[in-house]
Description:
By secondary structure, the protein is mainly α.
Amino acid sequence: MRYKSLLADTVQAIAMQPSETSTRLEISKSLFSLAWPIIGLNVLQVLALAVDTAMVGHSEDAQVALTGMGYASQLLFLLMVAMFGLTIGTVAFVSRAHGAKQKARVSHIFQQSVQLTALLAVLVAVIGNLLAKPLLVLLGASSSTLGPALDYLRPLLCGTIFGYLNILFAAALRGVGNTRLAFTVALGLNGLNVVLNYGLILGNFGLPALGCLGAAIGTLISQGCAVIFIAVLLHRNVVPSLPLSYRPQALDKPLASQLIRVGWPAAADVLVLNAALLSIVGMLGRLDQTAVAAHSIGLRIQALAFVPGMSVGQAIGAMVGRALGAKDLRGAKRVLRSGLWLCIVLMTTIGAVMVAFAHPIIAIFGVDPDSSLGQHSVDWLRLLGISMPAIGLYVAITGLFGGAGATKIGLRINTAVTFVVQIPSSYMFAFSAGLGAFGVWVAVPLAFSIKALWAVREYRRGLWADIGPGGQT
């Protein structure tokens, strides 16, 4: 009852604090204007991988190629963890400086972040290529899938700088309130990626059929074109608040240290999420391989379903950072109030669709709802749907923490709930209570509900407003 009361009081406090209607509408409009291109950009990223996968699925030895590509994608994601942290740090610093109207500092932070990204990309490319084979084997790649995995992995590792700079440019633009440029460029370049991959994967337009290698080359070329295009526009001052100089600067070690201090908890947070995912797959593997396949189907749906909420959370973070930079704490709270309801409404609506239309949704993947795979898939999809309101609340408030530079708060919540609640509960429900795969999955809505309640508590404590991007508690 204590936590139920806490949640009710907090939602009421967030919703009912007095403010002018016009101000609320203005903030809501600004938030939506910032968020929709982020949603579009994130959807394009998900669809790009889906298109690559679909095309590789029509190539020779498709099953082996897809498996190898899957292992390579896992490794690329894990190697990207540090970049996630740098991105969060950049948004927190850039948005604060922009909110404080410190144009020179925005430029300095951005320039330093670009150089740090380049250094990180070179490091990942070298280490990734040197350790590619053993790491793929460690993930489970067999001798037959190792070849396609390396074909896909090595070119993308060599061109890591293009992928990383795309991520950084989008994040920095978000920090100064311009999300449409990155989305517009991504829209055009995704079209180029489809054309290139159609030719290079399947051997159309007189090009050789290269399979996984073709997918990597097409992706690399499109990423490189996007980076060059945005870099030229920023250098020509198309976005006056975010100028880019081609002239290198000396490394600002204190700033780099602060970026790392804010960014590493966000990077660690991603690792914790991966640990939770691996624990679910491991337990399902001991119970029923069909449940593992159902979980995989659910994750594909989840990848798209989470995009609106996560995107709104990113927009909240950028706007909160700017408000705090302007020393407008009340404005930061108003941003959360508007974003919170937008996030909850979006995610609850998506969740309701997942619960109500679980059968036709999984039928899109060619799964018979009456089969064992179909029944497992429906169970998992509906449990995900039930989780969505809590996920909406959680990502909105953690978006605020990220924008405030208080990334350790989110890490503490996620780590404690994952290892103390979710993983033990999954094991207990699945094996001790005999609920099988359903027991593994039922811990997910439980965990997200606790995360949401804890995030609400941390919001009410108010420490996030005092931390600032230069330090953590």
